[in-house]
Amino acid sequence: MMKKLFAVLTCLAMVLALSVPIALAGRPVADKTAPTTTASPLGGTFTSAVTVTLAVNEAATTYYTTNGSTPSTGSTVYSAPLTFSATTTLKYFSKDTAGNLETVKSQTYTISGGTSTHATLTWTGYSMCSTCHTSQAQAMYQGVHYQWKGSAAEMTTGPTTQGKMDATDGSSALNAYCINIQGNWGPCGACHAGTGAKPVATANPSAAQLASIDCLMCHADATNAPYSRVRNATTGLFEPAAGLNMNLVVQKANQKPTRKNCLGCHAKAGGGDAVKRGDIALASGTTSDVLYDTHMAMGNGGNIQCQGCHTFTGHRVSGRGSDLRPEDSTLEVTCSTSACHPTKTTATGHVTTAVNDHISRIACQTCHINKYGKNANDTAATEATETNRNWQVAEWNATLNRYEPMPTKANDLIPKYAFWNGTSWGNNALNAAVLDAATGAYKISRPVGAITDPAGTKLYPFKYKTANQALANGKVVTISTATFFATGNYDQAVKDGMVYMGLPSTTAYSTVTTDELQVLNHQVPPATGNVLACAACHPNASATQLKLITNMGYALKAAQSVVCIQCHTLKAYSGDYVSFHGRHVDTRGNDCSWCHSFSRPEKGLKMP
Question: Are 233 and 181 within 8 A, CB to CB?
């Protein structure tokens, strides 16, 4: 019986062994082999610019980076040969149609010729930059400096992509200056890093689109071969200003941007020198006045270039103003770096314990920027900043050859203060306007944060700016600044703006006050003799700069008679806030929440 059973099982096994290949033969075999990408030529040392081709052995998509980072499927897609005129590390891999991923490869192309490759250049037009520097142009094309929009990860309102250009919901950013670029792309585009056409969002820009980037705005030698441009009235595109030796301009365009390059746009934002930001002016590029700005001042100052703090990676820049919608880079700007102030954000970085106790909740700028809109003592121009803009009143600007809304400007202003966690609230075009009961104005932008926030939120200084703007159908009107600049006719400019918004030009409108807060980061004077003293904020009754109890939420959470008897009988307050605070916090270790409506758990104090 056992022999028969064994014979049956053996026969069955043979059938199965024969049948499995037969069954599998009709099925497609899954592709589990990663593609192979080959670079030609391979990395090495070259005496001049080198053009690199990436070829893959099967249908696949190739991704690459040239900034040292490891590429992913979110990186730039290879579509055409890459030209490197400076030493570059190319990292790349491919993904085939079956989803197989190749291991990342790396090639370094060392260009021994350095910047001498520019010495014999002849100007042939804006396309000559992107032809040689294709990878850099592709990186720039995707950045906020060119797209004027980007990730809105640090915005608490609006779509995931925001900026001056149309966002993903069709709206674009508002401000309390020129309001919105849709009404006047022409003059606004003068500071756009392109040759005049509005940018098109695409992961794979064509050669013609890359050629629309104006690299000279940032890379021209602003001292030895200054570059400027004008808009062609017929084509609407920018071209070099008359009289420039463009051969010399491109031959000298072999440097990183200097402050003059950056300030050409950033200092003149909003329509003129020092108008918008309150802490940046053309003087920031030329002054030796350390009291104006010890970081950027030449001579005895730090003479720090903008990218000394605002580092660039793949043409993406770190840092963001609180009123700006997009972020270009996730890297943060910080004062405490190995090169600058490596210990100042530690608990022992300052001389006194009292100051060290503040750093977890008080930003460096709060104590070190005690006023803004300052004048540099070695420039003839005034660096006064705009505090209000009235669109109802037009005045002729002979320098700009156009009508301008009536500005109010001032120097030496005391900042407004607010808690900021790094994210922002912003009102965009086509959004419903929001009235701020505290200021009586319609909000344009606000830093987000509160005294009750967890660790990470700090008190910062801000410029406060208002404007008289039109409101229709519950929305701030994107006024046609082109109409206003040409005619000075406020009513017609409002009507033209309402048409852009999809409203009839006959829609009733009113003029309201708008306002916004803009974080201050520049115009830091030397600390000695200029940093805010304790008396600037303490005690509240005599504070000269900031009344913490009255304005910032540091009041008691209840009447003194209620708060004190949590621990002891009611006692009179002597007025000596230093010893009073020290006795309750430093000696007894009580958390702030014993007396106030907020807590500081990061200090490890005793909770109620």
Answer: no
Q: Which fold has domain 37-118?
A: Immunoglobulin-like (2.60.40)
**Which residues of the chain fall short of a pLDDT of 50?**
1-26, 114-116
The maximal CA–CA distance of the chain, rounded, in angstroms, is 115
Both tokens assigned to 29: 């075999």
Phi, psi of 113 (to 5 degrees): -75, -15
CB-based contact 191:265 (threshold 8 Å): yes
pLDDT for residue 3 = 46
- The answer to whether the CB of 553 falls within 8 A of the CB of 451 is yes
Which helix (DSSP H) or strand (DSSP E) does residue 18 occupy? helix 2-24
DSSP string, 254-315: -S---HHHHHHHHTTTTTSTTSSSSS--GGGGT---TTT-TTT-STTS----GGGTS-EETT
Domain residues of the chain, as ranges? 37-118, 556-608
What single letter denotes the amino acid at residue 572? A
Which of 314, 280, 303 has its CA nearest to residue 145? 314
Q: Residue 486: phi, psi to the nearest 5?
A: -80, -35
Phi, psi of 403 (to 5 degrees): -80, 145
Task: Answer for the pair 44, 171: CB distance below 8 angstroms, yes or no.
Answer: no
Q: What is the pLDDT of residue 22?
A: 36
pLDDT of residue 310: 94
Tell how strand 458-472 and strand 385-397 pair up: parallel
Question: Which of 150, 191, 194, 192 shows the shortest CA–CA distance to 173?
Answer: 150
The per-residue pLDDT for 573 is 79
- 3-state helix/strand/coil string of 137-191: HHHHHHCHHHHCEEECCCECCCCCEEECCCCCCCCCECCCCCCCHHHCHHHHHHH
Question: What are the backbone dihedrals phi and psi of residue 289, each rounded to the nearest 5 degrees, phi first?
Answer: -80, 105
Rounded Cα gap, residues 73 and 66, in angstroms:
15
Place of tokens 């792309």: 185
SS (H, E, C) 24-67: HCCCCCCCCCCCCEEEECCCEEECCCEEEEEEECCCEEEEEECC
Cis peptide bond upstream of 539, omega within 30: yes
In this prediction, residue 113 carries a pLDDT of 53
| Separation between Cα atoms, residue 23 and residue 27, nearest integer Å | 8
pLDDT in tens, 529-546: 999 999 999 999 999 999
pTM of the model as a whole: 0.81
Distances in whole angstroms, Cα of residue 228 to Cα of each of 177, 195, 241, 458: 24, 12, 6, 41
Q: Are strands 402-410 and 229-231 parallel, antiparallel or unpaired?
A: unpaired
- Residues 470, 510: contact at Cβ < 8 Å? yes
Under 8 Å between Cβ of 162 and 286: no
Please name the amino acid found at residue 310.
H
Give the pLDDT confidence score for residue 31 in this predicted structure: 87
pLDDT at residue number 27: 52
Q: What is the 3-state secondary structure (H, E, C) of 359-371?
A: CCCECHHHHHCCC
Q: Are 589 and 605 in contact (CB under 8 A)?
A: yes
Amino acid of residue 221: D
